[in-house]
Amino acid sequence: MADVMAELAAVRPVFHSEADFQHAFAQVLHRLAPSFGIRLETPQGHSPQGRLEHVDLWTIGPQGRTAIEFKYFKASWSGTVPAGDGLGDEAFKLSDHSATDEGRRDYVFDIARLERLCEAQPGANGVAIMLSNAQGLWLPPKVVPRTRDREFRIHEGAILSGTLRWGGGDYPNNARNLSGSYPMAWQPYSNLPGTRGEFRWVAAEIAPTVPSA
């Protein structure tokens, strides 16, 4: 993962959208590991709530299968970066997602879903990755938060584990139980000119379920 993200940052320091991020990641992964099979948006059956679910990206390699879920949470930023291959500059204008609580919630949802998927497919592992230029996601709070997403915080040094309740339990449909433990260690991605030009990423790695004898 670190190798792919380092290579990706060198050619694509910023993305227009989450789909743009996914596509560019798949391109770099294919270049670094051409023997891997790469599949985008593959259906995986229905969730406990009855919704049809898809995995953003599956890799199929000699050591097994990995499911990857992406989140790209944007704070407003605008600027230009080289498009590469002599194509000139490319303009970007990122809109502000603003609702960091929902960004944290959706990232935890990805981790829980990957745990469920890996349990159903013994031998498969998973990675939930978040890329963002919203500092509020990775900076630890100065005081203990009393917000509804307080158990879903993903700042540097936080550890996601056990039962996470939204709003202290007032929203049971948002609660998630994690069987693994996931320390949040944010990594530098790119640093572009202007306010909110710093991008970082974090990944939670879901271990494979060992097939029963």
Outline the structure in words.
- There is one protein chain.
- This protein is α+β, with helices and mostly antiparallel strands and 213 residues long.
- It has helices at residues 2-11, 18-32, 100-120, 135-138; strands spanning 37-46, 52-61, 64-73, 77-82, 89-94, 125-132, 159-164, 176-183, 187-191, 198-206.
- Helix 1 crosses helix 2.
- The longest helix has 21 residues, at 100-120.
- The two termini are 30 Å apart.
List the helices and strands and how they pair.
Layout: H1 2-11, H2 18-32, E1 37-46, E2 52-61, E3 64-73, E4 77-82, E5 89-94, H3 100-120, E6 125-132, H4 135-138, E7 159-164, E8 176-183, E9 187-191, E10 198-206
Parallel strand pairs: 3-6
Antiparallel strand pairs: 1-2, 2-3, 4-5, 6-10, 7-8, 9-10
Primary descriptors:
single chain; 6-stranded mixed sheet
Number of helices: 4
SSE class: alpha+beta
Report low-confidence residues grouped into runs of 5 or more: none
Q: In this structure, how is the largest beta sheet organized?
A: 6 strands, mixed
* Beta-strand percentage range: 35-45%
- The overall pLDDT, averaged over residues, is 91
Q: For the terminal residues, how far apart are their CA atoms?
A: 30 Å
What is the helical fraction, as a range of percent?
A: 10-25%
Provide the succession of SSEs. Answer: HHEEEEEHEHEEEE
If you compute it from the alpha carbons, what radius of gyration comes out, rounded to the nearest whole angstrom?
18 Å
How many β-strand runs? 10
Structure in a nutshell:
The protein is an alpha+beta fold and 213 residues long. The chain has helices spanning 2-11, 18-32, 100-120, 135-138; strands spanning 37-46, 52-61, 64-73, 77-82, 89-94, 125-132, 159-164, 176-183, 187-191, 198-206.
